[in-house]
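Q: Got one fold?
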Amino acid sequence: VQLVESGGGLVQPGGSLRLSCAASGFTFSRYGMSWYRQAPGKERELIATITRGGGSTIHADSVKGRLTISRDNAKNTVYLQMNSLTLEDTAVYYCYADFGRGRWGQGTQVTVSS
């Protein structure tokens, strides 16, 4: 099982990024997926979850309306569209598969700075 995040980087406040998480080694379409993030000195927090078919999503209040989770089961990929980014969005972003006891990607750094 492998989860590989990409798309992170440095962006100015108010900017946008799209993170991708490519999954392999399991039947992607059978499992819910999530995005977490961990800011410096803080605990890892759940920010968005999507059901296996993509028909239902949940977003944390802190990101609702700005960050959006989606998935493409044909590509075995989950996305996080990030708009109107603020300094507080600076963190390492991780994708998580609800497979077995749970699997994590290696993370991708997002830095919001002017």
